[in-house]
UniProtKB/TrEMBL annotation, chains A, B:
Name of the gene encoding the protein in the UniProt record: hisD
Alphabetized Gene3D superfamilies for the sequence: 1.20.5.1300, Nitrogenase molybdenum iron protein domain
Organism of origin: Persephonella hydrogeniphila
Keyword match Membrane: no
Active-site residues (renumbered): 324 (proton acceptor), 325 (proton acceptor)
Protein name in the entry: Histidinol dehydrogenase
Catalytic activity from the UniProt record: L-histidinol + 2 NAD(+) + H2O = L-histidine + 2 NADH + 3 H(+)
Cofactor(s) this protein cannot do without: Zn(2+)
Function statement: Catalyzes the sequential NAD-dependent oxidations of L-histidinol to L-histidinaldehyde and then to L-histidine.
Amino acid sequence: MKTVDLRGKNYLKSRELELLIKRSEMEVEQFEESVKNILKDVKEKGDEAIIQYTEKFDGVRLKPEEFLVPFEELEKAYESLDEDTRFALEVAFERVKKFHEAQIEKSFFVEEEGMILGQKVIPMERAGLYVPGGKAAYPSTVVMNAAPAIVAGVKELIICSPNPNRYTLATAYICGIGEVYRIGGAQAIGAMAYGTKTIKKVDKIVGPGNIFVALAKKNVYGYVDIDSIAGPSEILVIADDTANPEWVAADLLSQAEHDELAASILITTSEKLAKEVKNILYNRYLVNFSREDIAKKSLENYGHIFIVDNIETAIDISNYIAPEHLEIIIKDPFSALEKIKHAGAIFLGEYSTEPLGDYVLGPNHVLPTGRAARFSSPLGVYDFIKRSSVIYVNQEGFKRVEKYARKIAEAEGLEAHKLGVEVRLKNI
Amino acid sequence: MKTVDLRGKNYLKSRELELLIKRSEMEVEQFEESVKNILKDVKEKGDEAIIQYTEKFDGVRLKPEEFLVPFEELEKAYESLDEDTRFALEVAFERVKKFHEAQIEKSFFVEEEGMILGQKVIPMERAGLYVPGGKAAYPSTVVMNAAPAIVAGVKELIICSPNPNRYTLATAYICGIGEVYRIGGAQAIGAMAYGTKTIKKVDKIVGPGNIFVALAKKNVYGYVDIDSIAGPSEILVIADDTANPEWVAADLLSQAEHDELAASILITTSEKLAKEVKNILYNRYLVNFSREDIAKKSLENYGHIFIVDNIETAIDISNYIAPEHLEIIIKDPFSALEKIKHAGAIFLGEYSTEPLGDYVLGPNHVLPTGRAARFSSPLGVYDFIKRSSVIYVNQEGFKRVEKYARKIAEAEGLEAHKLGVEVRLKNI
């Protein structure tokens, strides 16, 4: 972990900041070709391609009728969890659903003389949720991706997951998702985008995955909708001398343990805090830590402590980085809220630790990474609905605006656009 | 234009429908390589690459300081328009802005014991609008793309357009956009996505363009946000025997004149209407029509009249096609509204002709094409804002949920996530 003193410096020009920013700009061309081939095969050969690639990559030979996990397996997985874990997941699902209800968007209709203009909000019909298999399978992924779709009113929600573990299956059961396919990788994305004989195509694909899954999602975008492509995760903590170094250190580590590419960043006005946090991390928390290898690499490469002159500078840097998670642990955290321009989730105050938000508070943990907070939002109900404009004009309304439409059609040289207005005008 | 009688048939399985659907699935691999090279050049060489490609493709050699159109040119273009056209565009801009105000999304904050959970809505900082040059430059494009961004509160809105014509410049002036660059193609998309010395990078790129522009947008997606990739345009008219064949024919033609790939589709219960519409199109409207070549090709390849048993079937087919524009010209058009599942814009009743919606009513004319209405929306204010989750938990709130977070962290094997909770628990 690098400590960089930016006091008195042109802080937005620092080399360390530049490298941090560049971290999310990795090129992945080398896998592009194989992902495209997999997608093409799935599009052309359907189930047969799924069988081949599942055998090749996941080492399982399945018949098409074995893609779907039998409902009893979901039930069994649910019953296999201890009661506390089960209850915790149920609480999480309920709380996340409840928060997302505030995101529900209503249709609207505005009346004007001779017109009704509006917007009809309609949930998507069918959505697919990708859940990674093996080690990286997190029940919270299922909760966070399923809840907004369910609140939006999506009728058919399916899961694709290679070798799904019992947590994935149990959480599917909790969320009321009965259609779970044990397939993964780019081939699962292809199946959801194009459809096969066994798997009906979806309208939107969401959920995290490895580089193959991410590239496949990017490639099928347009055919179907996708959520944003998740890059490596990041946390940025803004703290002053009122912050508890143990708490800050734990929160930084909770990001670093995710992924070698994760970035944990502390920006502080306190030299003392900077020293203590680093000391606690390396001399206490990382000793005998279960995910030491991952966390150490992450901290070595992307862990940074920036010491700055004042909180304004810290916020400025944070806005430049546009972090996925932003914790503000300062004397009056609410005073900073207004100045935050780009962040996936903003955690205010010392008790608002990221893991609470990751699991159980209610807001979504699927957040824009790699500076995408400049232009995208947490996963939400708005990701699972679409809108249709509704236009009704009667003769009265027509008369009020027709001449402007004719004038613009003329300017654009679109004769038939003008004609559509003129033939009606004859009638009046 | 093909007339297909689907009465008594398994209509969703008709070959004609299948071919219509496939029309939007064209592969464009052959341009992928050159677009990627252009983007790479712009990323690496900045302005220099812009100069080279603008010379190569647009035949103009510009210095970097000539990229920006001087403000006086915008003003002059505005003054060059006749008063009626100017006023029509101003009315359009005002009406479109007003409609979009109904889409404004507010931040929300929900209080619970020991917690405040919410969502902060923030406009994007800087957006780029691509406007095609030459023939395909439509002032309405500027209005429809600029208005939602302006209503959303985007501070910096720029336009890139190769050889922008006076309508583009005048409409930029009307919309209050002072930053217009005379560059286009994939190189303009690259400049907006990566930034150059002269052109500051944006957070989102919107607007139509040729295949190079579309591919470039798809390639930079992730770096910056983009609107959906527009495919060829389509109109679907559902009409019964109450519809005026002249009006229906004009509306179909107004789509066909756009583009050889545009699809104009009539679904009707009336054999008589089917015959009359076709007759009027070919024997009256297409005679001496300014855009005859384009329209004829479009109608020949993608123009269809489907005769069906009843309006329910017509709606069913329409939902399958998920058309960009849907006109419903039947006795009680409102009765159909509830059954429409997928359509970009729904025009109800005989006076609600598409050209009015294209130009002046208020709803956006940038609409999902090629079945994308299954999962996407008209361009709107929601495309130019993003949301940040806001989380505040005090000790009381923390105590209410901490055990669930610990339990799930255990299930996921994320030790540091649990630690973040436990170190705080010690304090209580």
